[in-house]
Amino acid sequence: MSSVGGSVRLWILAVALGSFAAGVVLGVAVPELWAQGRHEQTPEEDYVHEMATRYGLNAAQTRSLRLVLQHDRERQLEILRTADWSQLPPELQNRRLKEQRATELRILQILDERQRALYERDSRPAGGATVGGGTPESIGPGDRPTAEYR
What we know:
Layout: H1 2-39, H2 45-55, H3 59-82, H4 90-110, H5 113-122
Helix pairs in contact: 2-3
C-alpha cells in the first residue's frame, strides 16, 4: 500500500513541477510574443524597423522611437480633426465627404427600417431644413453627414 501511496505522491510532484515549468516558459515567452505582435500593428512599424536596422538601435531606443512616432501621429490627427473646413484643401474636403458618405451608407445598412427612419430624421440639417439644404461648410469636425451626401 505504501508503494502505491508513494507513486501517487511522486506523480503529483511530477505534475506540479511540470505545471510550474510550463508556467515559467509561458510567462517568459508569451509577453515577448505579445509585444512583438502589438508593434507590427502600428502604421509606423516599417519605418521603426528600417531605422532600427539602419542605425543599430537597441530595444530601448526602438521603443522610444515608436512612442515618438505614435505621439507625432496623434498630434497630426488632432490638427486635422480641429481644422476648420475652409482650411482644408479642396481635394481633402472631397475625400472627407466621400468617406462620410460611405460611413453613412454602412450605418444605414446596419439599421432596420424603423431605426433608419429615425436616423434619417435626426440627420437632417438643424432648423428643419429639407434634405439637400445644407452645404459642405456646415459640416464640422465630428458632425454626422446629412442625407444629402449619400
